[in-house]
Amino acid sequence: MKTTIAKLLNSDKALSALLEQKLPLAVAIQLGKVVEEIRPIFDKAQEFRTEVLKKYGEEVFDGENQTGQFRIKPENVKTFEDEIRGEFEAEIELTSAPIDPERLPDSCLTGAEAISLSWLWKEEIKP
Is residue 74 part of a domain? Predict the structure, then answer.
């Protein structure tokens, strides 16, 4: 299954919604394997994002108190975006099997959620 880190990150809420559904056992197990595979990718992406924020930004303070947030310096915005895009838009290969959306219960996802999970779906084989 090929996708990008950006697509994985953008599908986080939809994936969480799917995980809350009652699914056929085989689909639930298959989905669990996907989640186990992508969890370290999510963690690594978050670490990378934090490093790049610190590299090109400045910490935001509320008076003298740290907020834990960073603001990208205007002169670094393009470089920041290029570095994030370079990392997150690179294609990755997942070893987990894709899921056949036909095996999911009706109305378990919104259209927007289904679209954001497009990387997860088994592609139809066209004759």
Answer: yes
